[in-house]
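User: I'm curious what two different proteins look like when written out as structure tokens. Can you demonstrate?

Assistant: Sure. I'll show them one after the other, since each token string lines up with its own sequence. Here's the first protein:
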Amino acid sequence: MATATLTKPAAKGGSFLLESPQPGDVFTPADLSDDQRLIGQTAEEFVLKEVFPLIKDLENKKAGLMASLVKKGGEVGLMGGGVPEEYGGAGLDKISTTVLTEKLSIYGGFAVTHGAHAGIGTLPIVYFGTEEQKKKYLPKLATGEWIGAYCLSEPQAGSDAQNSLTRAELNAEGTHYILNGQKMWITNGGFADVYIVFGKVDGEKFTAFIVERSFPGFKPGNEEHKMGIHGSSTTPIFLENCKVPKENLLHEIGRGHIVAFNILNAGRFTLGASCVGGSKHVLMTSSKYCKERKAFHKQIGEFGMMKEKLAEMAIQIFAVESMVYRSAGNIEAAMAAASGSGDKIQNTMKVLEEYAIESSIAKVYGSEMLDFVVDEGVQIFGGYGFHEEYPVCRAYRDSRINRIFEGTNEINRMLIIQMLMKRAMGGQLPLIPAAMKLADEILAGPSFEETPEGVLADEARVVANAKKMFLQAAGGAVQKFREKLADEQELIGALSNMVMEIYAMESCLLRAQKAAAAKGEAATQTMIDAARVFINDAAERVEHEAKRAVAAAHEGDMLTTQMAVLKRFGKRAPVDTIALRRRVAAAVQSQDRYPLEAR
């Protein structure tokens, strides 16, 4: 699969906080190859032609319907993207699977089903399976003949995944593990054939197993009555002396956390891409409705507040899309660089771990963006938005789970800082020297700054200063709380929000600069406008979080001094975001869709 190459090796995970990449260093949707665009087109057509006409039946859980659609999707190659070609899959690169995920995610019920099957239900075998396990399971999973599921959550464990009560004991003959326990919230639980199940061998060693539906003692429970994603199947799973052949142990005894966490990293990133696809569809639906609905003798789309909503929806989608494809480009480049040496699976694990921070960012920022977009969609539809006959009502309900899936957003916010600190302490990320250098710069006082030049030059300076704010706030927090920082969850939340905003701001900036360099400013004006609005507003959010963090780490005269420094870093030229948003809204309304897609 041909992919557009980046101008230098992939950036290290988390390094965006310390480096100043050039526009050519990042992958953007404009860099997609023709093959990758075709994959996206095939996926989108499948959902619109095969899935959309059946939504009502899917929402009512018509028996066998969703499973038949998974099989149908498998026949046209949509289910085996992550499975290598030698096992009957498409063997797609990371960028292609990102496009595939985005385009399949127009309808929440199908998006969730696909993700649970082709992602977290299949990838554990791809990454950790033995040769025999891969040969047995992957060809059937790739074609959708068998459907996969992932069983980690338990009734009492919630976010604390390793606190598993499911037990696995080797039988006296040494032929089977006997599993006992219960799993909760299992997507595809009602109709899957192959389940990745986690339990503790001898009640101690957290371990993964491949469990078939037909194994004695395995029983799915009844469908859960959920707020949203009604089209998907969600059931508990009961294991009562379930006999699992010992050759179905996945990876190694006691190494289940390695399987779980690496797969969750992959799943978190995928979820961010999924949110992009769902939000684009809601924006399109909302823009069309703004022309159909009239009030006070006008189309409601002619009113300023409606324009503002459409513009902000597009701008936030632009930010997440820019982050997701930038990360996909880095992950793909890192995987390609590692492919020539050593163990392929180990290399894949290292790359997934390398970009765990960016994966959590995609998940948190993407799910919160989608929640914003569907909420505004309901508002645009007014009373009709609250009615089940209109699709935005369903989209609103379907969206809410994304902030809980794949580790709650609170857990992921904690993880972002935890992973950054771990990398800093391990010497992989020179955060501490950078913070010390910044402290010296602060003591030296204001320096003469060169006048920025080029497209979005002012915004580039704002992004650079946002990074300084983070280093200032994080440095103070680490200095005060040291190893007890993990207990200061509100402070970690503030720092994490800054990290996410910085990645979003810079991704918008670099994408717009890269587009302007390729096509000229006139042809990319909407993208430049969107980037200016986003960076202006995100800078205010960064400053707000920085003030919270600094106030938690300092007091007295030191606090006054630190706040003065923050004010200096926060200095920026005022931007007329009302006028810019009107221009972005005009671009949305002229096409009745997300206007920043490279076509």
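Here's a second, unrelated protein for contrast:
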Amino acid sequence: MPALPTQTRSPLERRAQQLEQLEARTADVLVVGGGITGAGIALDLATRGLDVVLAERGDWSGATSSASSRLVHGGLRYLEQFELSLVRESCLERALLLRNAAGYVWPEEFHFPVFRGDRIGRAKLLAGLWLYTALATPRALGLPARRSAAAMGRRLPQIETRGLVGGGSYLDAATDDARLGLAVVQTARQQGATCLSRLELVATDEAGGQVRCDLRDREAGAAIELRARAVVLAGGPATDELRAVAGLGGPAWTAPSRGSHIVVPREHLPTDGATIFTSAVDGRVMFLIPWPRHTVVGTTDLDADPRQRPRASGAEVRYLLDSARALAPGSDLGPDDVISTWSGLRPLLAPPDGAAPSERSREERIEREGRILTIAGGKLTGYRAAAEKLAHRLTAELELGQRGRTSATRELPLVGALGGPVPRPAWSRLGASGGVRDLAPLGIAWDARYGAGAAGVRRVAGESRLLDATTRLGELDHAARDEDCLGLVDFLFRRTDFGLLSPGRARAELPELSTRLGQHLAWSEARREAEMAGAVAELDLRESWRRDPDAP
């Protein structure tokens, strides 16, 4: 195995120094929760000159923020719920992300087929698309287009032609959600925030204008006491659990729902851009999303228990396959075509009227109790705006920082972002023969994964193919050295998508990968074995639907 790359300090040494410094200071704000919302809040507050600590008990974007539909969008379907302000805000935030997170976020063309007898006809669809575009003005990505049945067939070659009357197309955006979340964390760190994963809040005590926070380092098990002038709880679907830890009571804040996705080979379900459609099973809005060499089918929307680890069930996989097959019968998708699955919890606010998951608002809620603020709800696209709202309230009500200051994050590029808007990626399009264009993974996929840092990773990894073991070890070196990668699952499913797109190869390479990461992190043999067991358990969880009695 090649020698480790040279570095001034190991990841463990840097982490130990940061943990030691926590005990010796009183921070302005402790932000608890390292998903996209918490990371965005830490970034916003740091740009205002505040001393910020961001603590995450697991990995960055380790739950909901790495289990989305990987879309950055205004929410076309929210128009039917008359949430026009949410749509407008999301469209404006989409435009900012396309500029400030270029490379992590890219434009994507969406196609919406219409069949005879559909609840949404062509006229209603076009009216909705024009309203959607108008709400995004002046930062609309382009004008919507009406499509004939033949044009829809060229964009989704296996589409059902019986009753197909045409459709419409419009521009939105897509993202690698886990990489985007990590970029926000890295940018917060660049702005002066102290950001530590595997650091868990276990208790708080407010007195004398400060909050004493008891933390536990989940790597070494050490107890740490930090004092902060304010605490922000950004726990996503675990908000109520986190509030209980902080000693806060009251009615439940969240009623999470589960959304599951399946990944199938692109050649079995080719699509030129993304497709938005209504399921023939139950009429829900669904997506086909292009990914290098693959197509993602999603998503479900079911009530979920936040205390249980989300997984795709056999019934959900059956539903997703049936829905995709009804839209594109030429695909003839079956259970053997499912490469992998992922499932996440949406941090939806608890409704007062028991509304169905798909009808619950995606807006955020922010409340302050003493010197502790809680935020819940929201969606990935609007994370920056939500952070800005919370920061305005925190600085105004707790007299921290400069009141009324405009957030610098509106103009701030994320670490690793490219120097301007990127074009729609070639791998999301089909050639004249219906084949997928330019799937060279070391080019397009790495640019999307690492942004402006791709060249540096290539230098570490060498110029061999992405699925070559030497190259993957180079990626692992980069993840351990520069991206807070503290576990095998972090690497397989968040620093890369190797475990998602090549689960069989991932299993085979676990011994080599665990040995390499263990060298960086000084693992004992027992820890290395535990990491491999954890990775196997994660891979098994994503395959567990096959053992369900209602599996297809």
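A detail about the second structure: Confidence is low (pLDDT under 50) at residues 438-444, 463-469.
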